[in-house]
Write a structure and sequence with these properties.
mainly alpha; serine O-acyltransferase activity; 72% helix; disordered N terminus; single chain; endoplasmic reticulum; acyltransferase
Length: 401
């Protein structure tokens, strides 16, 4: 038996079929006709693999995929802001899944460019090409990552699906994470109820109440992400993904963020690395490492493009990039001067407050996307003013260095 067709005679082929067919069914059920967005992207990607030289695959894949995704993002904006029409939830789900598919497609194209993965469709190896097609399609349309991620590398996906070294039972880890999701959703529900009963009036309420209310709203948005990431992590763990071999019983190998470690960040740069971890790593590999000039701003700029180019995205991501950049300079300047323990503690506390204020503005601007989020921030003008003052101080310190 030839080595390239052994996969068809093993049980791994059934795993690939189960994962890919399950993903297709899930896409059709949840997105309806808009599931074609994903199928078209997958088909075009395979065509590019078949006809484009491996050295240029990443450029072609990146350009075609981002143009296709941008078209649908702009179409949503056209319907919302120009035609004032409501957009189908199925369309939103399809575009959101298309963004995740962009991650997987460009991840494979970078693997091909860096020769970490080899895929060939030459006439002399048609069988091998067909053999590579099923794992690749399964990876792109896997039901475990179709709606929520996190990003898993293609080589890791193939290693697990072929069952070379099966992981231990994930039931205990999945159960524990589901309990965490329930607790997180319970806290979020109580926080939402409390905020509905205590909506501040800008003309009568104290400034601090308004600031805390907006901070609570941003926290509600972020907690929704943490719950979503945990559920996605549970699905992947149940399928056998995410186990760390170096750690006994550790199923956090595929995680987009932990509530406590991320929210405890006292620096914007730490928060940026811990928030949506697999996406942050993908952006670093795709943009940051490859850019010779202004890599940080280019990375956040591409993230802005990838997220949809809404007005709130411009404000949120550019603010995020500026604060991360200045955070590097400030920490480099101030941290060596913190000789005593109480100074380090004070620096950490003030840094945490500053990080929460900036993250609040970013979350409100990005989540509400349009002018409504910016108006909400302008109502709590003291919060906005304090952040501007902090930004000015950061810039002054940077200039004086």
């Amino acid at each position: 038996i030839q080595p390239e067709i052994q996969i068809w005679l093993s049980t791994s082929v059934y795993r690939y079929l189960f994962v890919s067919v399950g993903g297709c069914v899930l896409a059709v059920v949840t997105m309806g006709i808009y599931s074609l967005l994903l199928f078209v992207s997958t088909f075009v990607f395979i065509l590019v693999l078949a006809f484009v030289d491996p050295g240029y695959i990443h450029i072609w894949v990146f350009g075609v995929q981002m143009l296709w995704q941008t078209f649908w993002h702009l179409l949503i904006q056209y319907k919302e802001y120009w035609l004032h029409e409501s957009v189908s939830i199925r369309m939103f789900l399809a575009v959101s899944s298309l963004m995740l598919l962009t991650q997987r497609i460009t991840s494979v194209s970078m693997d091909l460019q860096e020769k970490q993965v080899t895929v060939t469709f030459s006439a002399s190896s048609k069988r091998k090409g067909c053999v590579m097609l099923l794992p690749l399609t399964s990876y792109l349309l896997s039901f475990t990552t179709l709606l929520g991620g996190p990003l898993c590398s293609y080589s890791q996906f193939v290693f697990l699906m072929q069952g070379i070294k099966p992981p231990p039972s994930p039931l205990g880890a999945v159960f524990l994470k589901l309990i965490q999701v329930l607790l997180l959703e319970l806290v979020r529900f109580c926080l939402v109820c409390f905020m509905k009963q205590n909506i501040p009036d800008p003309s009568h309420s104290a400034v601090l109440c308004g600031v805390l209310w907006v901070w609570g709203l941003a926290l509600v948005y972020r907690m929704q992400y943490y719950s979503h990431w945990r559920i996605s992590e549970c699905i992947n763990n149940a399928a056998g993904f995410g186990f760390r071999e170096n750690s006994s019983g550790d199923w956090s190998g595929l995680s987009d963020g932990d509530f406590w470690s991320t929210e405890a960040s006292s620096r914007m740069s730490d928060f940026a690395r811990r928030w949506n971890t697999t996406t942050a790593s993908w952006l670093r590999r795709l943009v940051y490492i490859r850019c010779k000039h202004f890599p940080l701003f280019m990375t956040f700029g591409f993230s802005l493009w990838w997220h949809g180019l809404h007005l709130g995205h411009f404000v949120g991501f550019l603010t995020w990039a500026a604060t991360v950049k200045t955070d590097y300079y400030i920490h480099r300047y101030l941290h060596p001067k913190l000789s005593s323990t109480w100074r380090k503690l004070l620096y950490t506390c003030l840094g945490w407050i500053n990080t929460q204020m900036i993250v609040t503005c970013v979350a409100i601007a990005v989540e509400l996307r349009n002018m409504s989020g910016l108006r909400l921030l302008s109502v709590t003008y003291h919060l906005h003013k304090n952040i501007i003052i902090i930004m000015i101080i950061m810039i002054i310190i940077t200039i004086m260095m």
